[in-house]
Amino acid sequence: MELVSTPFAGLQTRFGASGRVYRAPGRVNLIGEHTDYNDGYVLPAAINLACGVAIAARNDRILHIQSANMPGDVHVHLDRLPAVRTGHWSDYVIGIASALEQAGFKLPGASLYIQSEVPLGSGLSSSAALETSVAYALLDAAGYPIDLRKLALLCQRVENEYVGARCGIMDPFIACHGKGGHALLLDCRSLDFRLLRVPPQARLVICNTMVKHELASSQYNLRRAECEEAVRLLATKLPCVRSLRDVSKRDLEDQRSLLTATLYKRACHVVEENDRVLGAESALKAGNLTGFGELMAQSHLSLKDNYEVSCRELDLMVEIANRTRGVYGARMTGGGFGGCTVNLVRAETAADFAHQVGEAYYGATGRHPDVYICEIAEGVGPVS
Ligand code: ADP
Ligand code: MG
């Protein structure tokens, strides 16, 4: 059940002495859900499941791209990179190469071999791990200095515009700036961030419900539209409000009559969730893991009742966790309607916790959940 990080041994030998290897981590968000697109706060941590990439220079201007995780290797000429996506997974890599060239980095031809431990499409951000590891590899192997903030922004742009997938700044940002043993509080408006040490007596356990409901995409778009509508209405009385980030709980209560019952609930979630992230920062700084866990529990309830993005399986996984020994706090993480929960657990009970939650969830649903006991890992960089 516990996934031990492999050191990418296959990648080290892939291209012999001329090859170099880089890695970038997946991530989990501890608290601050659906706040990113409202210019708010998030608190992710990089995890010890990573995407690795081996790179070797070539004498021509070809990029040869292969992945151990997905079929179909691809050859593209750097002077004739396709301007639009093809729908193949290599879009992520080609999009990065293309954006780097457009930003003025002249890239040499290279062979790239990718191998990821981050489960694909499970909400642990395999896509940002892929993009950031590839971008870092292409730049570093060509001898360019790397600005991690610019790298994260470039990766987000590629995923939004070239791949055509929605992705906030959180995923590439934590893949770039993650630090071992630390969570990262990110202000999604200014991109200021603070690293917060997570005490060693706590472990992160991620439980995958193994379901993904169809509604996820349409409801996500609807929630974004609802937040925009709430901002528009609130700004009629509060002209300084540009996003829900600018609304205090007090303002929201004073202006409640401007909103429908549904819009009020959505705004409540975002406004209170931002406060919870800042509360979680204080709790971590004080070493108050119980307080941190309580905020996680409140976050889950708010996502369930006010934001209405949870589902039966996520609620069940959280309920099971809440009655299992050693838990500080449990909540759904990610967009909702399936995917994973994140649990803050006493380190010495983590293995038992993972086992018991897995068994109870299987007993209730007939599905075996994937459960990961994680270390908090470093952001993107070379594999020594
Ligand atoms: P998540 O980021 O939550 O894992 P996404 O849907 O955003 O889910 O990204 C998953 C997609 O990213 C995959 O379907 C694939 O196209 C691409 N991808 C991620 N990792 C790899 C990899 N190691 N090899 C090839 N493609 C990958
Ligand atoms: Mg992704």
Verbal overview:
This protein has a domain at 2-197 and 378-382: Ribosomal Protein S5, domain 2. The protein is built from 11 helices and 13 strands. The two termini are 27 Å apart. The protein has 384 residues and is an alpha+beta fold. Strand 4 and strand 5 form a beta hairpin. The strands form 3 sheets. The protein has a 6-stranded mixed β-sheet. It has a 4-stranded antiparallel β-sheet with strand order 10-11-9-12. Strands 2-7-8 form a 3-stranded antiparallel β-sheet, with helices on both faces. Adenosine-5'-diphosphate binds at residues 51, 67, 69-70, 89, 92, 114, 116, 120-127, 130, 165.
CATH topology of the domain at 2-197 and 378-382: Ribosomal Protein S5, domain 2
The CATH class name of the domain at 2-197 and 378-382 reads Alpha Beta
If helices are DSSP runs of H or I spanning 4 or more residues, what is the number of helices?
11
The shape is: globular
Which band does the percent of strand residues land in? 15-25%
From the helix content, strand content and strand pairing, which structural class follows?
A: alpha+beta
Helix amount, in percent? 40-55%
Order of helices and strands: HEEEEEHEHHHEEEHHHHHEEHEE
Task: Give the C-alpha Rg.
Answer: 21 Å
What is the terminal-to-terminal distance?
27 Å
Gross CATH architecture of the domain at 2-197 and 378-382: 2-Layer Sandwich
Q: Main sheet, how many strands, which sense, barrel?
A: 6 strands, mixed
How many distinct beta strands?
A: 13
Give the mean pLDDT: 96
Could you name the ranges where pLDDT drops below 50 across 5 or more consecutive residues?
Answer: 1-5
Q: What hetero molecules are in the model? A: adenosine-5'-diphosphate, magnesium ion
How would you write the strand order of the largest sheet? 5-4-6-3-1-13
